[in-house]
Amino acid sequence: MPAEPGTSMSKVQRRTYVYKTLHSPGDEHIPVLLDIYLPPLVSDVATGDSLTLGALVYFHGGGLTVGNRMSWFPTWLQKRITDAGHIFISPDYRLIPSGSTTGHDILEDVEDVFKFVAKLSNDVTPEQSELNPRPVQFRVDPERIAVSGSSAGGLCAYLAAMHATPKPKAVLSMYGMGGNFLISNYYTLKHSVFFRGREILDPTLFSDFLYPACLSLSSQVITGSPNTYFPPDAPTDVIAKPGLETNSGPPGFPSNRRMFLARLYLQLGEFLDYYTGEFEPSVSASLRTKAEDMQSTSSLSDRGLEDNLAEVIPEKHRSLFPSLCSPHAYASWPPVYFFHGSLDSAVHIRESQRLHDLLTEAGVQSVLNIAQGMEHSFDYQPDADAIHGQEFNKIGRWLDEFLTDTKIDS
Questions:
Q1: How far apart are the C-alpha atoms of 76 and 145, rounded to whole Å?
Q2: What gap in Å lies between CA 15 and CA 35, rounded to an integer?
Q3: pLDDT score, position 301
Q4: Local confidence band at 130 (pLDDT 50, 70, 90 cut-offs)
Q5: Would you say 233 and 251 are in contact if contact means Cβ atoms under 8 Å apart?
Q6: Which of 23, 46, 118, 290 has the smallest set of CB atoms within 10 Å of its CB?
Q7: What pLDDT is stored for residue 11 in this prediction?
Q8: 264 exposed, middle or buried (CB, 10 Å; 0-12, 13-18, 19+)?
Q9: 359, 275, 263, 328: which is closest to 107 by C-alpha?
Q10: Could you tell me which residue ranges the Alpha/beta hydrolase fold-3 domain spans (predicted)?
């Protein structure tokens, strides 16, 4: 079972692997990396011993536009997984907009992560040999792989549940995006603050990231863009303008322009265009038009409206929409645990509620845990373990049930 918080992590080994190689239009080879965190027990066994372990794959957040395998890292989750004797895995994946990347490419990366992890063992050479200090033999049990993710990483976890082979044994969604892409938050233009504590952005300052100018990024494929901030000793009198390339800004202000992109696309009501790559005709504009027509002629419930809006999504993109699975497809999902803040203004709690309802109706084991009064990214706050420690332990025990080898030798 998971150890209580505070267990020493000094024996946890981190190793970095290339799980796939991409080729840019200029034939540049681009390695796509993942980190694995081996549990302390790997350091405790004798050299030459062999271990077969369960693993949790965790996808980082960042709105699909920013972040890497070390961004917004959930130390609370990694500790509980490795303390319980399992491997924690954090991969990079392609970001939008970059190259011709869309959600279809991100889905491909998610699938490739699972193919790689299912065969992961000491027979695979780490990218950084200095992180491989002992020749203890280990392998991942392909029947004991679970998946998790925060925000946009939750969407990646849903895509794994829908499409990955081997299918994950369980899904942990931390305020996951994509549980319902048909709510108005994704396709309405916003003129006032909609993400609590964040300003309305000036789109003209991001023109190079907007369609069609963003197509000029076709020669670049980005698989990681870290969340970076101006340091504490930065000038306090600097006026920050999100979107401008500057060398200075107020302390703690984002210094990576990509950190604003997901919010900008939501503000413009165009996120789904960048996600699907469907700009002409615009998926978002089609959703807006249909929603306006339906609201003026009927009194449908939110769910009825969203069911009708689903008709707008082209068939070729429906594989990217977790809320558009068939009942038969939902029945094949693994158990899911949702943990979502009640006041989340970035990814509305309605998303987790909708997907939880769909899975429950299909007979899938689904737990919806609502963190009352909590905003987006509540588990990254400095005192998160003190506030949510009991819930974190519950999540650790829940995952442990799926990652522990329960087979009895005859």
A1: 19
A2: 6
A3: 76
A4: very low
A5: yes
A6: 46
A7: 81
A8: buried
A9: 275
A10: 56-176
**13-184+317-403: CATH superfamily:** Alpha/Beta hydrolase fold, catalytic domain (3.40.50.1820)
Which of 161, 173, 168 shows the shortest CA–CA distance to 140? 168
* 3-state percent breakdown (helix, strand, coil) of the chain, nearest 5: 40, 20, 45
CA distance 381 to 151: 15
Rounded distance between C-alpha atoms, residue 252 and residue 182, angstroms: 33
pLDDT in tens, 111-129: 999 999 999 876 665 654 4
Dig out the tokens for 2 from the structure. Answer: 């998971």
Beta bridge partners of 20: 32
- Six-digit token pair at 52? 């077969």
The amino acid occupying position 24 is: S
Rounded CA-CA distance 4/399 in Å is: 15
The answer to whether residues 226 and 68 touch, using CB atoms and an 8 Å cutoff, is yes
pLDDT at 272: 98
SS3 state at 241:
coil
Both tokens assigned to 149: 């993710």
Q: Would the pTM count as exceeding 0.70?
A: yes
Chain segment 307-354, per-residue pLDDT in tens: 889 999 999 999 999 999 988 999 999 999 999 999 999 999 999 999
Are 187 and 268 in contact, with CB atoms under 8 Å apart?
A: no
CA gap 64, 331 in Å, rounded: 27
Q: Which residue has the tokens 């939501």?
A: 266
Which of 177, 174, 83, 7 lies closest to 396 in space, CA to CA?
83
Q: What average pLDDT does the chain have?
A: 89
**Residue 266 backbone phi and psi in degrees, to 5:** -70, -40
Q: Label the pairing between strands 13-23 and 336-341.
A: unpaired
pLDDT digits (tens, 9 = 90+) for 36-84: 999 988 766 655 567 899 999 999 999 999 999 999 999 999 999 999 9
What span, in angstroms and rounded, lies between the C-alpha atoms of 348 and 187? 14
Q: What type of residue sits at position 368? A: L
Nearest to 161 by CA among 21, 52, 323: 323
Q: What pLDDT is attached to residue 241? A: 80
Q: Count how many Cα atoms sit within 13 Å of the Cα of residue 276 in the half-sphere of its side chain.
A: 24
